[in-house]
Amino acid sequence: MYDEIKKSKIIKREKQQAIIAVKNRETAIGRRIKAIEVEIDTARALVQNKKNQDNYQLLLKETEKIDKLEIEYLELLEEKESLFKKIKMI
Description:
Elements: H1 2-48, H2 56-89
Helix pairs in contact: 1-2
């Protein structure tokens, strides 16, 4: 009986720790997503600025940066979605 209660408490604690870890990761993802949005907006502003129209190196650099950030953004959204599924399973 005592062993069963002890095992039950251990399992409960492990579940709580797993949920906390998932929520911490979710928070970190949310912060990174917000940062990416700001970086994309800044890069788009540079690309759309008429003063930079003739600066092909800058346009190329910023466009590549936007592409990389958008890929990271989508990967983070997918990870966040999988975290929601993971929490439901716990």
